[in-house]
Amino acid sequence: MGNLEIYGLLLTAISAGWLLGKLGNRSNKQTGDGLGSIFHDYFVGLNYLLNDEPDEAIDTFIKALEINSETVETHLALGALLRRRGKVDKAIKVHQTLLARPGLEADMADAARIQLAQDYITGGLLDRAERLLKELMQENSVAKWEALQLLITIYQTEKEWESAVACTQELLSNARYKKDSDWNARAAHYCCEIAEQFIDKEENGKARDSIKRAFGFRRHSVRAAVLLARIEQRLGNFKAANREYLRIMQQNPAFVPQILKAMRKSFAAIDKLPDFKHSLSDHVSNHFDPVALNMLVQLITESDGSEAAIRFLRMKIASEPSVTAATQLLKLEAGLQEEAQATDLERIHQMLENMLKKRAGYQCNQCGYESKNLYWLCPSCHTWDSIEPNYKNGI
Questions:
Q1: In this predicted model, what pLDDT tens digit does every residue of 207-236 receive, in sequence order?
Q2: How far apart are CA 273 and CA 279, in angstroms?
Q3: Are 154 and 126 in contact, with CB atoms under 8 Å apart?
Q4: Per-residue pLDDT for 22 more than 80?
Q5: What does the DSSP assignment read for 233-248?
Q6: What are φ and ψ of residue 389, in 5° steps?
C-alpha cells in the first residue's frame, strides 16, 4: 500500500501534463503519436506494477511524465514523495532530470536544487549536498536561507560545530529568524558542544569564551550554566559554582537531578551543607522531584538522625503521596525494627526500589523516546531540548 500514493501522483501527473501540453499546442499534428506514446508507457508501467516490479514501474511512469512549465511543481512533489518513501535514488533521478531541462526558471531551479540537496542528505551523500548548497549560497538567491538551514543540519550531523555556529549566526542575521527561539537555542547548544571539547582538554579559558557565546544566543541556557558551574568547581571557585547551581535550581527546576551530586560536593567543600539542605528543602516543597527528595532524606538522616527523617517522610506522604517517599520510609523503618520485622520491610523496600529503577527517567516530548539518561539532542528525532524528566505524581 505504501507505493499507491506514488503511483497515484504519477498517473495523475501524466494525464494532467499531457492534457495541459495539448491544450497549449492545439496545432500540433503529432497529437495522436504523443497520446499513443504516453499511454504505451502507461500500460508498460502498469504491467511492471502488476508483476510486482515497482522500481521498473516508477522508471517507466517518470519517462511518461513530460517536463514542461506546467509540470515542474509536480516533478518536485514527486521527487519529495519518493524520498519520503525511501526511494532516494529515484528522487535524485527526478530532480537531476528536472535540473537538466533547458530554460528552467530560476526560482524553480533553486527549488529543484534544494530538493536534490535533501535527497543527498537523506542518502548520506553529505559532501555532494554541501557543495550544492554552497553554490546556492554564493548566488545569494531567495533560496539562500533554506540552503543555510540544510547546511546547518549537515554540520550538526558531522559535528562541525564552528561551521554550524557560523551558519546559524548568518541565518539569525535575517530579521525573519532573528528572534526565533529554536534557532537561538540550537546556536547555544553548538557553542556548548565546543565548550565541552575545551573542558575535556582542560582549556578552561577557551571553554569560558564558548559559554559566553552560548549565553549570547540564549540568556538562560541551562546547559551553558551547568558547564560554567563545572569549570568554577574544577578551579576551586566554589562560591561562584554554587551561585550557578542555585540559579539553575531557580530557573530550570526540571534539571536539578543533573546537578545534585556536584552541587552537594561544591557546598560541602566550603562547609555550606546546611545552606544546600535549606535550598533543597525549598525545591522539594515546590516541585515533585524524586531524586531531590532522596538526597534531602539522606541529608536529614545525616544531620538530624533517622527519626527526624521518618517524621519528615510521614508528613511528605500525608501531603503528597509517592512511591519514592514510601520506599525511603520503609528503608528507614526497617533499620529501627526487630530483625524479623526488619527483614519483611526490607524485602518490600527492595521490591519498590527495583520497580523505580526500571522506569525511564527521561522522555522526548516530540517523539516519545525514553531513556534513563538526559540527552540535550534526542537520539531518535534529533530535536534539541525535547528530552524532559519523566517523573509523574505518585512515583
A1: 999 999 999 999 999 999 999 999 999 999
A2: 10
A3: yes
A4: no
A5: HHTT-HHHHHHHHHHH
A6: -60, 140
